[in-house]
Task: inverse folding
């Protein structure tokens, strides 16, 4: 078992599971190079050395140690980076970062000369950037029963990070925000925000567009007002579509009212 | 609300679009849980980007584009034959609220042509912002102050708006007199002073009572048109620098002159707006605000205009080779900031990281330093690849960096061919 080039831990791909991996790795005095899901086949020349049973107590002990050493912002960057689900090896990055943090006598969070610290700060920036894009480019459509509905397909799983913002901003209107890619959403009913899922065959869960029959009477007017405004505000002699696409990438256009 | 609104909105957005101010930052306005909207942590959100690459953060409209003034550079001057329209205050309130509810916008930027007289117009503007706040709208409101409006009305408007602005438009008074005979510096500076005093008074008042009302919490901004007159960059930047000495002035915007009134002989006939010059002015503005540069270091009597080929920070570095090379592992933050190719974020990361060990070129590159530029101006514990500015001489470094740009094709807005001198129809 010890002769293979790489070793791997298998775990349940939860954040507590990841912290348990750290705990077990110090317990077994063995650093895995790879972290795999239970059903994931091990890559070539790599062997699953240990199967981790997620344990909240172990996870809490690791977290408590990190809390002692790191600033709140750095801790936050760990939990935020965890949401970067379109970077497949982000858990291995966080694992390495935590191990380096434990091994070092003082916090390494500002050592951007270290490849993992720098990479984690970049992933954190990427997730925060995607969150910002969601705050920018989310568009609500009003339904006949007064609920504002918006669909979005963020690159990372950032929907939970945006809820506080939308809850505060649109406190006096009911809304639903739905992540079409991950097929879940949140609904605000003027009191609290709850997680919801639509049935998979629901049309709304597929393309995120409201059918005209369930739209508010004025919805189409305001949509065309917005499109009119969008066209009129641009100065023809300064046309610069490249800059526009740079700041508002084409992949968001699908759900933008002004780009329909 | 009906389809006729489409036409009105089109006219009034088109007449407002030459105002470049777009920011929705600099203030925090919390939602109490019952109203609509908030203004988040001092950061504005850009909700869309128009075809010309400018951001759309606020609903930028005019209340009316009828105007009694006849300023040469303005599309809405009374002698222009353009379609005119007027919103009622209630219409602006409704569109703003409905757009905001759909997450289209961050708030309202309201401006207006002058109807009848300054006070009549200002009164209507004040009514819009007052109504919006009465309907518990907590979004951002940027209100244009009308030149010549009474002190009372400005003071009232300041209680509801987040930011107010008066556009100076032309950086020297003689040129303003020529292009806008009905305006004077006095009619522009007067409302600016009223706002400035209001901000200071409210600030002092709030030190004593926390519940004292806020007055224009996001401060004021102003705008200058670039390229409509023969003013040099020195005139423009000296004025900006003087503005930034006043704490209530947060931003000065520069607007490349778009030839809207080509028939007017007092104006130059530009084929395209001077976009590169505008870009350089913004870069110089950034140097003054975030890089601790003094205006005299950027432009002076020997160099009254900014270099269009290289950015002002690089231009300064080329004029001051004795300042370099800067050792990134020992130099202070202010000195690192002066290196072309190192921005505020990279400089802060360098200062934070070097405590753990000396930084190498490879690490600097990873951090985000533009080594293509910075390599001639820094030293770290490695041999420089190309030699520093002192070994190569500034002229050589300049030609290396400029050649690189042209080979690749200038980026973004810079690719517009704008090297020819401005063609004037009549000499000044």
Result:
């Amino acid at each position: 078992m010890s002769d293979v080039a790489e070793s791997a831990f298998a775990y349940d791909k939860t954040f507590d599971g990841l912290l348990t991996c750290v705990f077990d790795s110090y317990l077994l005095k063995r650093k895995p190079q790879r972290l795999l899901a239970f059903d994931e086949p091990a890559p070539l020349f790599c062997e699953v050395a240990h199967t981790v049973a997620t344990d909240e107590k172990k996870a809490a002990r690791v977290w408590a140690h990190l809390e002692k050493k790191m600033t709140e912002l750095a801790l936050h960057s760990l939990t935020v980076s965890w949401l970067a689900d379109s970077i497949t090896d982000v858990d291995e990055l966080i694992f390495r970062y935590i191990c380096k943090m434990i091994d070092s006598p003082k916090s390494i969070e500002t050592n951007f000369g270290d490849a993992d610290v720098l990479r984690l700060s970049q992933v954190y920036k990427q997730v925060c950037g995607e969150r910002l894009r969601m705050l920018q480019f989310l568009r609500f459509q009003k339904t006949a029963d007064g609920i504002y509905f918006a669909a979005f397909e963020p690159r990372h799983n950032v929907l939970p990070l945006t809820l506080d913002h939308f809850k505060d901003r649109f406190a006096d209107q009911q809304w639903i925000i739905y992540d079409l890619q991950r097929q879940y959403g949140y609904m605000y009913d003027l009191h609290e925000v709850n997680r919801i899922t639509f049935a998979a065959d629901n049309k709304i869960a597929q393309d995120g567009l409201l059918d005209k029959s369930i739209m508010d009477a004025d919805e189409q007017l305001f949509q065309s007002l917005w499109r009119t405004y969008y066209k009129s505000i641009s100065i023809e002699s300064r046309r610069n579509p490249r800059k526009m696409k740079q700041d508002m990438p084409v992949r968001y256009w699908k759900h933008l009212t002004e780009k329909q | 609300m009906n389809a006729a609104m489409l036409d009105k909105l089109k006219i009034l957005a088109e007449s407002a679009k030459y105002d470049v101010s777009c920011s929705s930052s600099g203030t925090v306005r919390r939602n109490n849980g019952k109203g609509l909207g908030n203004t988040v942590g001092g950061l504005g959100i850009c909700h869309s980007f128009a075809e010309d690459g400018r951001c759309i953060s606020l609903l930028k409209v005019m209340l009316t584009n009828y105007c009694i003034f006849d300023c040469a550079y303005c599309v809405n001057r009374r002698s222009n034959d353009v379609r005119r329209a007027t919103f009622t205050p209630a219409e602006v309130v409704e569109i703003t609220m409905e757009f905001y509810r759909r997450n289209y916008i961050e708030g309202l930027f309201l401006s207006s042509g002058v109807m009848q007289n300054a006070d009549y117009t200002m009164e209507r503007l004040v009514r819009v912002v007052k109504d919006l706040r009465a309907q518990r709208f907590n979004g951002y409101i940027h209100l244009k102050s009308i030149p010549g409006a009474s002190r009372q009305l400005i003071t009232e408007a300041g209680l509801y708006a987040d930011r107010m602005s008066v556009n100076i438009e032309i950086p020297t008074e003689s040129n303003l007199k020529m292009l806008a005979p009905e305006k004077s510096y006095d009619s522009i500076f007067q409302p600016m002073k009223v706002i400035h005093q209001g901000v200071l008074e409210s600030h002092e008042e709030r030190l004593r009572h926390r519940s004292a009302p806020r007055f224009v919490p996001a401060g004021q901004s102003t705008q200058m048109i670039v390229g409509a007159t023969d003013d040099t960059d020195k005139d423009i930047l000296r004025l900006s620098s003087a503005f930034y000495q006043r704490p209530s002035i947060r931003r000065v915007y520069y607007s490349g002159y778009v030839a809207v009134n080509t028939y007017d002989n007092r104006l130059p006939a530009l084929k395209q707006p001077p976009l590169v010059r505008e870009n350089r002015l913004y870069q110089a503005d950034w140097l003054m605000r975030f890089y601790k540069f003094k205006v005299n270091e950027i432009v002076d009597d020997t160099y009254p205009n900014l270099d269009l080929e290289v950015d002002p920070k690089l231009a300064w570095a080329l004029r001051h080779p004795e300042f370099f090379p800067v050792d990134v592992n020992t130099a202070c933050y202010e000195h690192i900031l002066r290196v072309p190719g190192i921005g505020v974020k990279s400089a802060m990361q360098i200062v934070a990281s070097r405590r753990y060990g000396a930084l190498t070129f490879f690490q600097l590159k990873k951090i985000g330093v533009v080594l293509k530029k910075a390599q001639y101006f820094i030293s770290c514990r490695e041999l420089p690849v190309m030699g520093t500015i002192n070994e190569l001489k500034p002229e050589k470094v300049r030609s290396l960096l400029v050649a690189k740009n042209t080979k690749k094709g200038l980026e973004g807005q810079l690719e517009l061919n704008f090297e020819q001198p401005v063609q004037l129809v009549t000499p000044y």
